[in-house]
Queue: 2 jobs
Job 1
Amino acid sequence: MDSLEVFNWKICGVGGSGLQAVSNILGRTLVRGGYSVHVYDEFPSIIKGGLSTGQVAVSSRTIRSHRTTVQLLVCLTEESIKLHAGELSPNGWLVYDSDVVSGAPMVRPDVVSFGVPLTSITREIGAERLLRNTVALGVTLDLLGYPLTDTKKIIAAEYEGKGHQLVEGNYRALAVGAEYAHAHAPKKFPVALHQLHNPQPRMLIPGNDALSIGALAAGCSLYVAYPMTPSSSILTYLVKHGPDYGMVVRQLPDEIAVINQAIGASFAGVRAMVGTSGGGFSLMVEGLGLAAMTETPLVIINAQRPGPSTGLPTWTEQADLRFVMHASQGDFPRVVLAPGDPNECFTIMPLAFNIADRYQTPVIVLTDKYLAESWFTTEPFSLSGVKIDRGQIVKRGKVDEQTGMYRRYADAPSGVSPRPLPGTPGLPFMANSDEHDQFGLSNEEADVRITQQNKRLRKIKGIAEELPKPSRYGPKLADLTVICWGSSKGPVLDALDLLAADGLTVNAVHVQALSPFPTQEFRNLVSPAQRTVVVEGNAAGQFAGLALEQTGIELADRILRFDGRPFEPTELADAFRQRVK
Amino acid sequence: MAKPAPSPSKPFASQHPTWCPGCGDFGIWNALQRSLRRLKLKPDQVTFVFGIGCSGNMVNFIKAYGFHGLHGRPLPVAEGIRLANHRLPVIVVGGDGDGLGEGIGHFLHTARSNPNITYIIHDNQVYGLTKGQHSPTAERGFISPSAPLGVQEEPVNPVALALASGASFVSRGFAGDVAGLEELVVRGIQHEGFALVDALQPCVTYNWHNSYHWYYQRVYNLDSVGHDSKNFVAAWERAQENMAEKIPLGVFYARSRPTIESQQPALARRTLVEQQPSQPIDISKLLTPYQ
């Protein structure tokens, strides 16, 4: 185990066999026990079959990311042993289904192999094959010396809607797994976990759920989407819970309909949001410009996955940054926010909606598969400081005598002019995708064009003042300053903690608001740095290029990852160590 | 700004249209205003959504609340408006290129979801604003600047497509018959659900084939042949008539079925816009499952 004393558990098997569910239950059990947990899944882009994994990293200290070295590996198929046994730490344990593996598994001599007849045990208790996972969970908990009580409560809560029989079946599976391990484990497992005293109530939550709850808190009342990994769970979450909060949630036939429908709803006065991944965002691009041109508020979530094109559908990457911040033709303010963890996901949503409403413009929230679908330990979200600001919506006003129309797009110093909602008595106007005058009527005269274009672009100044500033983590002065954005925050901060334990002084700058760019604040944090390294999940160093363009600071040293896998803190720590030696 | 056209007798007119003299759009524009006056609606009570094209330029000639969106995309905007405020009468004005070329997917899916909107298609077989290329409703062999050998595809039949897509009100009018078109728009607005008015419209500049005269020789009213608009099979047969010979006008099909708005639990009592919160929503209950 590393200096953060992380215990890492991994289960491997065929996709669609419930690995994500069992990882989640183990993770939540240990969060209830007061541990800091990170749950991370890998799976191919097919419904059934292919090899999938679920993994749970656990520590009594704060952790924010997964680990690649595994202490306890559970393999449900023979092939998964071949693929993953190499990830075991020295003296790590392999638990495998001895019913499906012929003979003793071929592993390193230091590895402790523990064959458990998971298939026959599951069959003997009359349970479905899928419950092999729960038997394996029982084995795991017994090896760790951990009580089954919290796990049973979580199982009950999770499956009560699906029938008492399923809950009972899981209970039995859990118990027989634990009993088998108790009777047959070859020796004492080297790691013991126990419930920590007075554990703070904390949550284990994925980024997509945090975004969804943040949107609900912010009063978002229309969400429309087309399913696309890794954004789909926002749709399934909100369609389940949104109606209880007065929300209209719909799946639509394509992303073009999605963005146009959300714009229509927002034009008519409701807080509207759409969510997608890069491919769907590509289809929304023309609509993005429409929202800006008609000055219609809108929040767009793009949960990134590796491109180009359909790329690696179920993996992670941070390579849409330059795309979303320049998307659509013409000049207009593009607001791009990239939260780094679920708490930032939650808090950024009310801000995104307030900015969209107050500046009457689209706001993009950029996440990725790692943040969207991994489960992170976080304090319960707090509404303190959350406000709803709908901006300037007018119910009364003067209309032009000649046209009888309201000056919806009257020039204003802030760039923002009051808007009536359709149906308001006496204030008709046109929202117009074509360049338009103050009433919204099409107009191609040069002075009108210049006035309206400057009006829209002036909003950037006000928006920039309201965005979150870059954060520094670690000491003010350091031998190395790590620069990152979005979801790389977790692995980077965990790497910093690993280095601090070694007595190395490394700090990090995390940027959440990427457009408009926080030029001055970034300069203030990065200029004094002895040495810098950028960590970002794309091949081109998109953020590093953006920072150079916006600040003149050249960030030549870059750690880039674009293999679909997220950054891992022990690997990052090694890379940082080499730079400060 | 073009010269103003408002007069007390035409409350919905804003500026005088810039369409070519004789354009069929004038007939549709007049029929639309007449139907709104007949329904005693005021400009601030109606919301228009316009597509892009000569038809969409009506954004500048109508006084009301309105949204002039992207080419091919007015229908989802209109459905969004209805979900936000299902008390607003919403009228969509678009062309055949807009709705049957670029946006044909929205046409099909909006007919399925059945929002309470009236959709008027200016159907003139050509793209006027880009100088006369053929549209998806142009008949085979029609010669255009982008089809010098003649159009090689079968034309889209908007009436049949609407019927096949589950549209709850399907009609066809003609810009040269303003009174008939007015009647269809009135009935379309009164219909609870997606109402199609396919408005045949001569383009006097680029389409010399489908002229007023050409239409007058072929159109007839469905009422005059005792068509039953509740009979889907009869509607389908009428929709298949060869337009080179006979062109039926009127209501092909009308039936009552639930709108998409009426099926949203959140809209059961009030409109969504009336329910917009001013304080953050308490989400604490949602956090429990994660603990």
Note: The mean pLDDT of chain B is 96.
Job 2
Amino acid sequence: MMALVENHAPILVILIPLLAAPLAMLFGNKGLAFLLSLAASVASFLLSVYLLLLVRDGTVLSYHIGGWAPPLGIEYRVDAANALVLLIVSALSAVVLPFARTSIATEIAEKHHTLFYACFMLCFTGLMGVTITGDAFNVFVFLEVSSLSTYVLVALGAEKDRRALSAAYDYLILGTIGATFFVIGLGLIYMATGTLNMVDLAERLSTMESNRTVRSAFAFIVIGLGLKLAIYPLHRWLPGAYTYAPSAVSAFLAATATKVAIYAVLRFMMSVFSIKFGFEQDTMTYIIFPFAIIAMFAASLIAVYQINVKRMLAYSSIAQIGYMLLGIALFSTTGLSATLVHLFNHAVTKGALFLAVGAIIFQIGSPLMANMAGMGKKMPWTSAAIVIGGLSLIGVPGTVGFVSKWVLLTAALENGLWPISLAIVLSSLIAVVYVWKFVELLYLAPIDESVAAAANAKEVSLSMLVPMWILVLVSVWFGFDAEFTVQVANQAADSLFNGGFLKDAVIVGGEGR
Amino acid sequence: MDHHLILRVVTQILVAPILLYGLYVQFHGDFGPGGGFQAGVIFAVGFILYGIVFGLRRLRSKFPDHVIHKLVALGVLIYAGTGVVNMALGGNFLDYNVLSPDPVQGQHWGIIAVELGVGVTVFGVMMAIYYAFAGRPPSLDDKDW
Amino acid sequence: MEFNFDLPFILGHLNYWLFVILMLTGLYIVVARGNLLKKIVGLNIFQVAVFMLYISMGKVAGGTAPILTGTAGEAYSNPLPHVLILTAIVVGIATTSLGLALIVRINETYGTIEEDEILEMDQQKGQSELDAINKAAAATDAQGAASKK
């Protein structure tokens, strides 16, 4: 049994949630569905930890699906970069599920609870699959598995607010356009090279810089994935989807979906297309770089003026995506390392914030900021979580947000771009404004009488507090002891930037026949 | 549609061959063109045709929604379960060679099992989509058509 | 890289031209039409265009269907793009039916499937939320002023 788990860990991380989804539907009992999903998430999480420990020294694992050796067969390939993302996704799923069990009670009709868990597991499978696969077309398949279930999850918020439907529809249209662009790009590189395996692609593409087909393929792939990850001007679907989705879904999506898309972009930019390509460096300098800076400022400014807390956090997410893209656009190992550290740190921070806000909404039934006035006294633990999460969003020392900003600043200064480091600090100041606005409202504003009169204006139960505080504590812990995350991120950045992903891999799997 | 005699008779004649053809496409899939996707759709078409002509209610009484939903899940389980069996027998996920002492025979077994899973799911999904849209309370009355 | 933009080039890539035209038609419909249903139709045309791209690229001149017949040296079309596009077709069906399901729900709750009308209703809702907050804030201020006196 142990040998089975050890040999097949790369496939088991996605196979377990893939099995959990239909089993949940077959049993059709929501308690059982919850237990299955939670067990699957925890198992995936443990396997991700195991994989990360295996690859943190720079080893690359390769698993051949169906026993067919790549480039003919589909290969799952694990290096430090995707092991880190696997860890983020599975950890968040395991933490969010217990919260979801309580929070969906008020948000989703009871008969849909089983379907919710099944969809959640499919979304989780898709995200893990995008991350782990080493086959370019497989990325598309898993991307659509996760996206389609995400549209359903967002639309489930319609029980409370009908705007969830139009938000889900917008997301569906834009997401599908993005995915289709991505497929066109894949088709073009397949025409140029005749292969879809990432390692094989990298090898064949490395001599094709002047090939027009390859260039247009690159454009299609970056734009397609850019729509999924909400690069600044392509972010239109994000605020609506995060605002009107059920709280637990918002937390899970905000923490994982865009991170996985960023990872996919990184994989294609760094590993599949050679980083030496002139057109790729131009894309970084003239497109991603300015839009990252604009996102940092514009989205933060928009966040300041929101009256809906979830929408505020959604815009803040777009700004944070700007930081991650800035790290990529700096085009150095340190810059990439900053992006990867921030992937982890932002996932933890935003997850905690969305869960905490979700807890308040669960109690008072309104996502509007004005109705949350004075809740700091009624819900001390939840509000404290918001304060710590907010501090991390700003980047105050002692939280993970500081670590990522520090690495990003170092990377900017390393490239001699001191105006950029100034921009990073300035945009953090805008974050202070919207975080303070909310914290002030929670603690200093007089409580809204009509809300206080409602019976539920008290602290939430442990099932909601524990998940939120796990994330808060993780964000503080890795804020003080950043060695582990930074070391993994450095290794991952090295693997992406210096081609560690492409070198000979250790083949795992059954002995076959 | 009680008064559409021709439609009813033609449908009664057609449904059985459609289902038979679906089964042919399903199980011939490892020798020639065909397979679970196509077979699932063809098989579902037989039932949907029946549902259109004889009324959704009659179809639903034989194939209730929850059965269809279970079929969707079952197909995925057959597919993934085949992979798990392969892993238990010492191969990789979906490595059909280990299913039988003769690898070629193993590939045959494996692809039949996987395509069966695909077929069941596609059939279930097609039926579920039809139920979901046709089962909505109509805003048009029957005589407005 | 040099190539001649002449008639053989244009006619020789006929299916690729059609792909471009179909793709842009679909994309244009998605962007320009306000009716949610028409957007889905556009999305479908857009996706079908991609199917055509893939099927064209799998074609080998003089090739038959990729089925083993035992004849040695037989040319056959590349089956891989066809398999890939089968997956994409399935994704397309799922997207279409999900989109249509959302439209049905939107029609039931909003009573319309015109995008601008839905947007207007959503904005009105947002505005009413804002107004309520401003009113409450004004009331609190007035209360505060009164208590100071």
Note: The mean pLDDT of chain B is 88.
